[in-house]
Every structure is written in C-alpha cells, then in structure tokens.
From TrEMBL:
Residues 45-105 form the Cupin type-2 domain. This is Cupin domain protein. InterPro entries: Cupin_2 (IPR013096), HNL-like_cupin (IPR047263), RmlC-like_jellyroll (IPR014710), RmlC_Cupin_sf (IPR011051). Pfam families: Cupin_2. It comes from the Bacteria.
Length: 140
C-alpha cells in the first residue's frame, strides 16, 4: 500500500493535472503529465487507489503497442483472457499492438507509471468496456 505522499515523493516527473480529457475511459480519478509529444509520446499517469482504465487495444498496421514503466506505488496489468499481474516500481510491461488489456492502481494504493506509445504505422487506440467492479474487487 502506498499513500499519495509516498508516491509523489518517489516521482521523478511531477504528477500533473486531473486527466479530465480521458475520464470517460477510467473508473476513478487519474492524473496526466505529458512528458513528451515529440518523437515518442510519453505520459506520466498517476492513479488514485482503485482507479483503472477501461479495457483497450492499441491497433497498428505495423509496429505499435505500448510500454509501461512502473515508477511508484502498486498497480495491476491484465491482458484479456489472462490473470492480472501485480506491478511495482521498476516493473516494465511490453504490450504488443492488438492486445486487449487494462492497467491501473491496486485497490489500496496510489500508482504511477510512464505510458510510452510505441511508434506505429496508422496507430490508434480502441477504448472498450470498463473493468467490472466485481472482477476488480477480486484482486489481492
């Protein structure tokens, strides 16, 4: 379990503002600080306890996908049809294009990761359904 103060003290990049532009794709409150929009898009995403994004897919004709570099707190990542993976600072997640997945904070912890968009030919993100509370509630 990590508190907001513990997570912000661990951060190399500042937390950023409430992520209102993407709030319809999240359950709970997230915060976004765009680190880079040149060459490679990198966002510092912070999740309040219990916050997670909806299932989504990064599509691309060639290359693409996403990388997560976990920097503070405790969270989860799950691919469709697989068991959730607990995330801690220092963990790296490689998400190939076309893989349906979600990621977010543990129920009792703040969580921060750098989300890196892997350059793609004709890349796009398809947002899907929310992770149901009953499924998320099973996380340990």
């Amino acid at each position: 379990m990590s508190t907001k103060q513990e997570v912000t003290e661990q951060m190399v990049f500042p937390m950023g503002e409430k992520n209102d532009a993407f709030s319809k794709y999240f359950v709970g409150q997230s915060y976004l600080n765009m680190i880079s929009t040149e060459q490679v898009v990198i966002g510092n995403v912070t999740f309040e306890p219990g916050c997670r994004n909806n299932w989504h897919i990064h599509h691309a004709d060639q290359n693409g996908g996403q990388m997560l570099l976990c920097t503070a707190g405790s969270g989860y990542y799950q691919e469709w049809g697989k068991e959730p993976r607990k995330l801690q600072p220092g963990d790296v997640v490689h998400i190939p294009a076309g893989v349906k997945h979600w990621h977010g904070a543990a129920p009792d912890s703040w969580f921060t990761h750098l989300a890196i968009e892997v350059p793609a030919e004709n890349g796009s993100t398809k947002w899907c359904e929310a992770v149901p509370d009953e499924e998320y509630g099973k996380l340990k």
